[in-house]
Amino acid sequence: FCTPCLQECLKPKKPVCGVCRSTLSPGSRALDLEKQIEMTETTCNGCNKKMYLSKMRSHAASCSKYQNYIMEGVKAVTKEPLHNTRNFPNRFTFPCPYCSERNFDQEGLVEHCKTLHSMDAKQVVCPICASMPWGDPNYRSANFMEHLQRRHRFSYDTFVDYDADEDDMMAQVLMRSLRDK
């Protein structure tokens, strides 16, 4: 847990478990969990050495191969800052395709359209899809509300690297899946 969340759970008036939020008894330890940690074996993702979970933290601190493994993961998800943002489309805020309201994030646009335009049958261009590299700014969805429900339940930014081509992304996924076995 991060310090602010842990501090919230340990307030002197009523300390609670950080997971289930049940009241903690002073000085009580989760002995069953400690025993399970002592008896569960795992393998270091860096050097492939087998050890008990209870030893993993100290091993990870001194294993250079594990630290390299972690840094590869960090590099894979870290992007260089964009220097010239004028050439990049806005993929963060969108206008409503039915009315004049603007500056919705993806979730806000979905909620706005569900609330105010659920019965509107007019064919419109999806502003989220139109902003994507593969999007067609002229394609009008036959059923925009169904499209929103099916295609925009999550943010593409979480899963897509817009600067990588599809072959590069597939290669990265395959390498990570082989490494994590």
From TrEMBL:
First-tier enzyme category under EC: transferase
GO biological process terms, semicolon-separated: protein polyubiquitination; ubiquitin-dependent protein catabolic process
Keywords on record: Transferase, Ubl conjugation pathway
Domain C2HC RNF-type: 44-63
Stated name of the protein: RING-type E3 ubiquitin transferase
Catalytic activity: S-ubiquitinyl-[E2 ubiquitin-conjugating enzyme]-L-cysteine + [acceptor protein]-L-lysine = [E2 ubiquitin-conjugating enzyme]-L-cysteine + N(6)-ubiquitinyl-[acceptor protein]-L-lysine
Molecular-function GO terms, alphabetical: ubiquitin protein ligase activity
Enzyme Commission number(s) of this protein: 2.3.2.27
UniProt pathway annotation: Protein modification; protein ubiquitination
